[in-house]
Amino acid sequence: MRTTHNTLSLNQKLAVAALIAFFMLLTRGSHVLTAVSLPDASVALFLLGGLLLGRAAWFAVFFILASVIDFGAAALDPLQAFCLTDGYWGMIPAYGVMWLAGRWLANRADAFAFLPYACVSMLSTVIAFVISTQTYYLYSGRFPNNGVLETLQYGWNYMPGYIGFAAMYFVIIWLGAKAIQQFKMARTASV
């Protein structure tokens, strides 16, 4: 079975990493670098990283970048620090789920086959949402901590936006991948 991330050259992997970093800087929740407030693309970017880059070292690089963006934004604007609690570290397993979903897709013959791509990206996003929401509400110290059953009532109003914006980015990634595949096929056919 081929893995998508193993088919890329080092230069291609570096280009992918640069694009992921650029879009993380552009869309990360703090929006310190842009006047336009774009929705956070982090979950989609971590899935894409797992799919195209694969190695855990890349995961660490992008988690550190996300943390630097978040803590840097909080240093510039203390209001941005509201979510920087002990619950913040729940983002590691949440983004890890996305990375592993990308790794799973990379091991498929066609990582961008619509049905598996759509199902895996959406299921992993829901799991990441539950992990990040629950770790925040359980460990932030900002809410009564009476256990998981009580905290399940918090945060669900954020789910439609979280899932919707992730889905939007997954569609953009899928369309881009299909366009690249078509371009490669047309180029191969003309040679």
Q: Layout of helices and strands, plus pairs?
A:
Blueprint: H1 10-27, H2 42-52, H3 56-76, H4 91-106, H5 114-139, H6 148-151, H7 159-190
Helix pairs in contact: 1-2, 1-3, 2-3, 2-4, 2-7, 4-5, 5-7
Q: Tally the helices.
A: 7
Task: State the major sheet.
Answer: none
State mean pLDDT (0 to 100 scale): 87
Element string (H = helix, E = strand): HHHHHHH
Structural class of the secondary elements?
Answer: mainly alpha
Distance between the termini: 27 Å
What is the alpha-carbon Rg in Å? Answer: 18 Å
Proportion of residues in extended strands: under 5%
Total beta strands = 0
Helix content: 55-70%
Query: How does the overall form come out from the CA principal axes?
Result: globular
In total, how many domains does the architecture comprise? 1
Q: What are the low-pLDDT stretches, counting only 5+ consecutive residues below 50?
A: none
